[in-house]
Amino acid sequence: MVYAIEQAIIDRYGNDALYIVADRDKDDQLDHLAIEHALADASAHIDLYLTGRYTLPLSTPSALLTRLCVDIAIYWLGEDRGGASEERRKRFEDAEKTLAKIASGEVKLMIDAPTSNSTGISFSASKRQFSRQSLKGF
After folding, report:
1. Fewer CB atoms inside 10 Å of the end CB: C or N, the chain?
2. 88 with 74: CB under 8 angstroms?
């Protein structure tokens, strides 16, 4: 599951910010495939932190995950172009710290935690027939 789409980047940072990192050949055209890949890669990166703590894929991503996905994708798009600005690097590092807190449980997403769907071994037993009390006198 992808936690953000191209429009989320535009909504958060504007078209100009997206053109800075995603106009790869300077033809005033966004490289939509690169944006899509960066968002998918960022989402997969986020899943690494969520695995084990939340059931994946999430049914609905939180606004926090969308923001983290956008910040990671923008950073990686900038890196692909030969370097990221200090501001993008800082947002990426903050996203990584937040993800580490989510993974440790220090920050909780407002979604359901994983449920156990184990099909492992289970057993049941009837009431105990023999005890010290019932065998007293034998």
Report:
1. C
2. yes
Q: What is the pLDDT of residues 1-12, one digit of tens each?
A: 899 999 999 999
Instruction: Report the C-alpha gap between 5 and 3 in whole angstroms.
Output: 7
User: Domain coordinates of the chain in residue numbers?
Assistant: 6-104
pTM score of the predicted model: 0.77
Which structure tokens are listed for 24?
């790869």
Q: CA 130, CA 101: separation in Å to the nearest integer? A: 52
pLDDT in tens, 77-123: 998 776 678 999 999 999 999 999 999 999 999 875 544 455 556 56
Tokens 């944006």 label which residue?
35
